[in-house]
Each structure stands twice: as C-alpha cells, then as structure tokens.
Amino acid sequence: MKQLGYVDTYHMMSCSIENPPDALLWMDALRAKYDGVGEPFTRKDWDRLLGNSQAVCDWPACAFAKELIEAYPEAKVVLTGRDVDSWHASTMRTVWWRVTDPELRILSHFSWAASMYYPMLKKFFDTFFEGDFPNRGKAVFTRHYDEVRSLVPKEKLLEYRVTDGWEPLCKFLGEPVPKDCPFPNVNDNKDFVTRSRRRNRRQMLNVALQGLEMLVIIGLFFYLIFHVQWRSLQSHRS
C-alpha cells in the first residue's frame, strides 16, 4: 500500500511497536463491543484512533469490520483471500504463539509498552476468536469473510489474492501500476519468532536499565540524607 502512495497504513505493528498507547483505545473499543462496557465507537472515536491513516488492515481492526464499514461508507474495501488452512497454520506459528508467549506475559507486568499491548492482544483473541483460536479460528475466519461480503456494496469491494499482482489492485483503487517494481512480500513470517524474541530482549534490557536507574536515584537519596545527618552530627561535636 505504501508503494501506491498510502504512506500511513494502519496495521498491527502500528499499535504493537510504533505507538503502544493506541492499545488502550483498542481495548476500550473491544470492551464496548464485546463486554458492553462504555459506548460503542463512533466515527469521531475512530478518527481519533485512525484519523491520520489513509488505509487500515490487519488486526485488531478486523474485529471491527462492520463498525468501520458503517463509519466510513465512502471507503473501498479490499478483501484479501487466503486458504483458510494455510492462514490458520501460519497464525498458529506467529500471532497465536505471541499470545501464549510466557516472556511477553511476564514483560507485561514490567514494560511500559508490553503493559498496554499484551492485554489488548489477549483480549482480541479471547473475544474475536471466541477464546479458542486453535479450534474456533477457521470458523471465525470464514464467518468474517461472509460478513464483509454482505456489508460492502459490490462496486466498493475487491476480492483479491496477492498472487494477482498489481493490476487488479491498482485498477480498483484508481492508482497507476508501479513501474519496475515487483509486487512486495514483506510479511514473511519465517523469522517472526526470532524478531519477537529480539523485541523481548530489548524490552527486558529497558526494564533492567530503568530498574538500575531507580536504584541509583534511591541510593543517591539515602546517601544525601546520610551525608546531611553526618555533617550535622559533626557540627554539633565541634
């Protein structure tokens, strides 16, 4: 999408890496929809979360397909087709693994970013995938596609596979086909676990450094108290 000029396309890493506080708004939206806590999001609320974006994809936005379609009736919708079995197997190895990652769960008690991101990630899977992604994921996937097809007028809907290349996508969006630019495949999940572990280590290091900084501050505080008391005692003796 970025190569077609949609520079600000909102996706899962927009929340998980680029701006973790967004997770708090997504959590509000999930609670409103699935728990009845708070008011359902209106276009004003979605603008607050997504207003700077030219497009939105991926999760957690997919949990709000109906709400987003109704909030932005002028938008075009690209329904990316995938074989349900390969999608499920891929998600089990990647995002579902992340949901069940004990390192991330522990980090969520100490890391500023993980404390916002992980609860929302788990809430998304507990609600959208009915608390049982391994067994319910495929059924939810199929139902989601059927729902999108029923909500979007045919002239605003493109059912698309990435193997189709640039032409049908560009024609639907009214964009020129990029010249001398092969269709990208940047969502390669082969090293997903490695990259996630690397992020965990960075967050652990940040937590450790913050803890060390706090210990230094506390140490200096007690040193100053001791020093003042010692100087006071010395002055009394003299």
Could you give a quick summary of the protein structure above?
Helix content is 62%, strand content 5%. It has 238 residues and is mainly alpha-helical.
Q: How would you characterize the overall build of this protein?
A:
By secondary structure, the protein is mainly alpha-helical. The chain folds into two domains: 2-189, Rossmann fold, CATH 3.40.50; 193-238. The chain is built from eleven helices and four strands. It has helices at 12-18, 22-35, 43-50, 65-71, 84-93, 95-99, 102-107, 112-128, 133-151, 166-173, 192-237; strands spanning 9-10, 55-56, 77-80, 157-160. The strands form two sheets. It has a two-stranded parallel sheet. The protein has a two-stranded parallel sheet with strand order 3-4. Keywords: Membrane, Transmembrane, Transmembrane helix. The chain crosses the membrane at residues 205-226.
